[in-house]
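Sample intake sheet
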Amino acid sequence: MAAKKIDPHLRTFGAKVKRFRVEAGLSQADLAKLVNVTRSYIALIELGRTRCRKDFSERLGAALKRNDDVAEAWDELVSSAKYPQYYVDFATREATATMLRTYSADIVEGLLQVESYARAILPSDADLLARLKRQEVLKRDPALTACFILDESVLRREVGSPEVMNEQLRHLIELSGRPGVYLQISPTAYYPFVKGSFAIATQSNREESAYAASVFGGETSEETEHLTKANELFAMLQARALNVADSRDFIGKELENRWT
């Protein structure tokens, strides 16, 4: 019988609980005693193999002295209202990844967008707040490895206004100098089998998830065949893109020549 697939929301919540526990200097047995459950139940939560109730999450938060953090994690991962349904699984995997790789074919990747650029694209303030919160993954300490490839047409496609584009390209230049961020520009060309934007999130245990955008929204997959194809395509795009330094210079020239 095939093993039951773990819900990525529960897995992400469990990973956060484990991180809070370790930071508090507690063993699973210690935490179990504080909240009056068995050690095995704590293990199931941390593995994402069970869904705890809201009232129990509050007990966890109190025991870990992380009330707000645990409550926020529980609310986000249960409601999932901040993301389109097709994107929810990848968003939860992205939040705990140690490496992210994205290719953007048409607009600036959401993690790299300034507020004015995102506001011009997103339909509501709630979506904007979710986008800005999602960007916090780039501020983690220690920093994750984040590799971004933008098609050069992204830098020339006006979103919002010339002023918005000026701010956005300046932000890209600043981001490209941050530790752990590798931003490259790919020349506009035909790339076999690349149908649009996609992303790969890699966890510390090397598990991966891939997301591919489409006209109907998008799809998240953890199928071996899909992951292999996504990794191959990203490697090909990376090989054909400008290196990081040349990409930064290219963005600067587009900023000066087109958006200043």
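Comment: The longest strand covers residues 145-151. The domain at 86-258 is CATH 3.30.870 (Endonuclease; Chain A).
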